[in-house]
Design a protein that fits this description.
The complex is a heterodimer of chains A (245) and B (100). Chain A has 245 residues and is mostly helical. Chain A has 2 domains: 154 residues, no CATH class; 71 residues, no CATH class. Chain A has 12 helices and no strands. The longest helix of chain A has 29 residues. Chain B has 4 helices and 2 strands, in the order H-H-E-E-H-H. In chain B, a hairpin with a 2-residue loop joins strand 1 and strand 2. The longest helix of chain B is centred in the middle third of the chain and has 24 residues. The mean pLDDT of chain B is 90.
C-alpha cells in the first residue's frame, strides 16, 4: 500500500508521524507550566508552530509575563514568513487557499515541499506534510495535556533523532556539488555557534540570512560573467519557479 | 484572562507573519538572481534545521545521542535507503545510544 504513494507523500507522512508524536510532550509540558487544556489546545490549533509554542509556555513556566511570552513566540515565528515567501513562489496558491497554506506553513511542510523537484510533488509534499502534522500535532497535544507526564518523554524513544534524520534526509539530495556542501556547512556552523547567544529558532533565521547574503554577492558576480552561467546550486529550482504560473 | 489575551495576540501575529510571506509578489522569484538565492537559502535552511535539531537543546548546545542518530542516518542515506528507513534508523540509533 505504501508503495502506491508518491515519494513526497511518503516523506510527508513519515515526517508528520514523527513530528506529531512530539505533540504529546508539548501538551504535557504546557499543562505542567500552568496553562489549562483549552489554552494548550488553542496554541496548537491557532498558533501552530512548534518552536513558538514551546517558547510561549517556556516563558509562562519561568514566571514571565504574558507579553513576554507573546513576544518570544512571535520572534520564533519570523522564519515562517520566509517560508511563506518560498511556498508562495513555488505553489502560487490563490484566494482563500493562501490563508489555509499560511496556517500550515512551518519548518517541515516547507522542507518537504522545497526538497521536491516536480511542481506536482512539491504541492503534494507541502499539503500532505502540513495537513497531516496539523492533525497529528493537535491530537497528540490533546493526549499529552490529558495524560500529562504519564505519557513519558518522546526522547526516550529517540524521536528527536527522527527529526535529525528527517532534515538530513531532505538536505542530502541537494548536496550535489562543492558549493552546496560549503553553503550547508556555513549554515550549520552559524546555527550552532549562535545557539547559546540568541533565543532558540533565531539561529536558523540568522543562518538563512548569512547564506542569503553569500548568495546575493555570488549571484551578482555570476551576472557580471555570463560565460560562467552554469547553474551552480540546482537548476531545477529555476525551471520550477517559472513553471508554477 | 490576560494570559488568554496574549495567547490570542501571539496566535494572530504568528499567523500574520506566515501570511505576509504570501503577499510578496511571486514574480519576484522569476528574477534569476532571486531564484538562485532562493536555492541557496533552501540548502542553508535545511542545514540549519539539521544542525539545530542535532546540537540544540533549548538555548544551549548539547552533544548527545542525537549525533549517533545523525551519523546513522548519513550512513543509511549513503547506502541509498528510502526516506522512511532513514528516519527509523535515525530514531533507533538515538534511542539505543540513550539506553547505554
Amino acid at each position: 500500500m505504501l508503495g502506491k504513494l508518491s515519494p513526497a507523500t511518503r516523506i510527508g507522512l513519515a515526517i508528520a508521524i514523527a513530528t506529531g508524536l512530539y505533540g504529546v510532550s508539548f501538551g504535557a509540558l504546557s499543562v505542567a507550566s500552568g496553562l489549562d487544556i483549552w489554552q494548550t489546545m488553542a496554541l496548537s490549533l491557532l498558533l501552530f508552530s512548534g518552536g513558538s509554542q514551546f517558547g510561549f509556555i517556556g516563558v509562562v513556566s519561568a514566571g514571565g509575563s504574558g507579553i513576554t511570552a507573546m513576544s518570544t513566540a512571535v520572534l520564533l515565528g519570523i522564519r515562517n514568513g520566509v517560508y511563506g515567501m518560498q511556498i508562495n513562489a513555488l505553489l502560487r496558491p490563490r484566494g482563500l487557499m493562501k490563508l489555509v497554506s499560511a496556517q500550515v506553513t512551518i519548518d517541515e511542510s516547507t522542507a518537504v515541499c522545497t526538497s521536491q523537484v516536480e511542481v506536482r510533488e512539491q504541492r503534494r509534499g507541502f499539503w500532505v506534510t502540513g495537513v497531516a502534522i496539523f492533525i497529528f500535532w493537535n491530537l497528540f497535544t490533546f493526549l499529552g495535556a490529558i495524560v500529562g507526564d504519564a505519557a513519558g518523554d518522546p526522547k526516550q524513544w529517540g524521536l528527536d533523532g527522527a527529526a535529525v534524520a528527517g532534515f538530513l534526509g531532505l538536505l542530502w539530495p541537494r548536496l550535489k556539488n562543492r558549493e552546496a556542501v560549503a553553503i550547508a556547512a556555513v549554515a550549520a556552523v552559524v546555527t550552532v555557534v549562535l545557539t547559546p547567544w540568541i533565543p532558540s529558532g533565531l539561529p536558523i533565521l540568522a543562518a538563512a540570512l548569512v547564506v542569503a547574503v553569500i548568495g546575493f554577492v555570488k549571484s551578482g558576480h555570476r551576472l557580471q560573467q555570463p560565460e560562467d552561467s552554469a547553474p551552480v546550486i540546482d537548476d531545477a529550482d529555476r525551471c520550477i519557479t517559472g513553471e508554477g504560473r | 484572562m490576560s494570559l488568554w489575551l496574549w495567547l490570542l495576540v501571539a496566535s494572530a501575529l504568528c499567523f500574520g507573519i506566515k501570511f505576509i510571506g504570501y503577499l510578496v509578489p511571486s514574480k519576484l522569484m522569476d528574477n534569476p538572481r532571486i531564484a538562485y538565492m532562493s536555492g541557496i537559502v533552501t540548502v542553508g535552511l535545511l542545514a540549519a534545521l539539521t544542525a539545530a535539531n542535532t546540537f540544540g537543546s533549548g538555548e544551549k548546545v548539547a552533544f548527545d545521542a542525537r549525533i549517533g542518530g545523525l551519523v546513522a542516518a548519513a550512513i543509511a542515506l549513503r547506502l541509498r535507503a528510502p526516506f522512511i528507513v532513514v528516519v527509523i534508523v535515525g530514531a533507533a540509533a538515538t534511542g539505543l545510544l540513550r539506553l547505554v
